[in-house]
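Worked example 3 (structure in, sequence out).
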């Protein structure tokens, strides 16, 4: 299978599986426990139908919108994801450049393999930093200050990782960051020589937003579960979130909100947006899909805060359905990670081009010429 054979996000998934050692692929593809929530995140979009209008004069359409004060060419964000250098040697650099080319928001993780400063120098496009609150308060302050100096456009506080979900595929494979060759996985690494040579011979794997404060950023191999369970602050609460919002002083997002009550609290502390998200099904298995929660949260806080439906997006029509349900935009991680793993920046650009075409085609077939016409009247939920 070649990149030119990829015509949807699932095709990129298959190509990534063919090109990655299995522990690395399973880290991207896997989720918590029985992976029921991961599956539901995408399946939820199939529980509603779009209702198109015809004869609407759709020769010219406008797919753009404003997200967190900056214009986006599409109502789609690229969610922050960790350790991208493990998936392809270009890592976050490829995603940053592709996002700028397509005029989209993208985010980098606290656990990014490119530094805050390096990403800021790469792109003038809208960018978000995803903050994990560590027990090391000096590290938290350092990352916020570095983002302020680098003029990041928004800070997203992740609130659903107090402890790690049980990611059983990673437990079986022994996946760590940086990736570690084990007797159980060595054959898979040897069978993927292109990935393995890139990993071994190109620049050293590191987590440059952490390595000034903790040894886990300097190349010490740890599992993500071990990292979350030992490094992150389990005492984080609403007072913590309010304090971080004040320390940051810019556009502030809570990522991982799933309930209407928490959405109301987000409004109360002055958040600019919430990302309805269950961390790609990687935390609490058996929880609701973000798309299922959009109407309830819109009813609770609609109009007072931006609402981003994060997770499960595989098609342009999924983005349209999220907007019809009341979300301000949609976002996702795997939708570009599979493409990054498959072919680096070229892969991400091809994936984004496919999603852009699907959004444009879907709008024309629905008889809408602008994003604000995607309203609840154009959606029906199945019995």
């Amino acid at each position: 299978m070649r990149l030119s054979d990829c015509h949807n996000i699932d095709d990129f998934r298959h190509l990534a599986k063919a090109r990655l050692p299995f522990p690395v692929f399973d880290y991207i593809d896997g989720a918590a426990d029985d992976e029921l929530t991961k599956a539901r995140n995408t399946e939820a979009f199939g529980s509603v139908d779009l209702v198109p209008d015809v004869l609407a004069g759709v020769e010219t359409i406008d797919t753009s919108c404003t997200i967190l004060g900056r214009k986006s060419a599409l109502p789609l964000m690229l969610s922050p994801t960790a350790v991208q250098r493990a998936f392809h040697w270009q890592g976050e650099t490829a995603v940053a450049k592709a996002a700028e080319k397509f005029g989209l928001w993208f985010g980098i993780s606290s656990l990014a393999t490119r530094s805050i400063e390096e990403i800021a120098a790469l792109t003038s496009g809208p960018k978000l930093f995803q903050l994990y609150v560590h027990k090391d308060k000096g590290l938290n302050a350092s990352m916020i200050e570095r983002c302020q100096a680098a003029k990041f456009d928004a800070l997203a506080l992740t609130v659903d990782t107090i402890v790690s979900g049980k990611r059983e595929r990673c437990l079986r494979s022994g996946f760590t960051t940086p990736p570690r060759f084990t007797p159980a996985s060595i054959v898979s690494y040897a069978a993927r020589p292109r990935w393995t040579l890139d990993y071994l011979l190109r620049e050293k794997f590191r987590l440059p937003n952490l390595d000034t404060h903790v040894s886990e950023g300097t190349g010490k191999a740890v599992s993500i579960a071990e990292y979350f369970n030992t490094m992150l602050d389990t005492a984080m609460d609403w007072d913590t979130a309010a304090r971080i919002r004040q320390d940051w002083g810019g556009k502030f997002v809570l990522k991982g909100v799933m309930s209407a009550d928490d959405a109301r609290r987000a409004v109360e502390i002055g958040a600019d947006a919430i990302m309805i998200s269950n961390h790609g099904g990687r935390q609490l298995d058996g929880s609701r899909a973000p798309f299922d929660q959009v109407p309830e949260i819109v009813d609770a806080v609609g109009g007072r805060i931006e609402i981003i439906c994060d997770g499960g997006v595989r098609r342009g029509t999924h983005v349209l359905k999220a907007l019809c349900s009341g979300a301000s935009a949609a976002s996702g991680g795997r939708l570009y990670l599979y493409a990054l793993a498959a072919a680096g920046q070229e892969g991400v650009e091809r994936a984004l081009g496919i999603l852009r075409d699907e959004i444009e085609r879907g709008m024309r077939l629905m008889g809408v010429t602008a994003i604000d016409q995607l309203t609840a009247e154009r959606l029906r939920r199945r019995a």
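Notes: The mean pLDDT is 94. The radius of gyration is 20 Å.
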